[in-house]
Amino acid sequence: MVLDAFVRALPFYGGVPRRVIIDNPKTMVTYVSRSKVRVFYPRFLALMNGNPPVFTGAWS
Asked: How many domains is the chain partitioned into structurally?
């Protein structure tokens, strides 16, 4: 649901941002290890098209 909203927002705002900053939403990140290595949902990785996300918040 969050990813669908994100995809619909891109044309609304007129394009794709150069950088996406996220805070480990459960629809994108399945697991964060103690060393902060993240495991992503495949659908989120496909949406990112090989561009790594930037993390913020307590988990970064």
From this structure: 1
Alpha-carbon gap, residue 7 to 11, rounded angstroms: 8
Q: What is the pTM of this model?
A: 0.60
60 falls within a domain: no
Which of these, 46, 53, 51, 6, lies nearest to 32 by C-alpha position?
53
> Does 20 map to a domain?
yes
Q: How far apart are CA 56 and CA 59, in angstroms?
A: 7
Amino acid in the structure at residue 35: S
Structural domain for 45, as ranges: 2-55
Both structure tokens of 39: 């495991």
pLDDT in tens, 10-37: 899 998 877 777 776 777 888 888 888 8
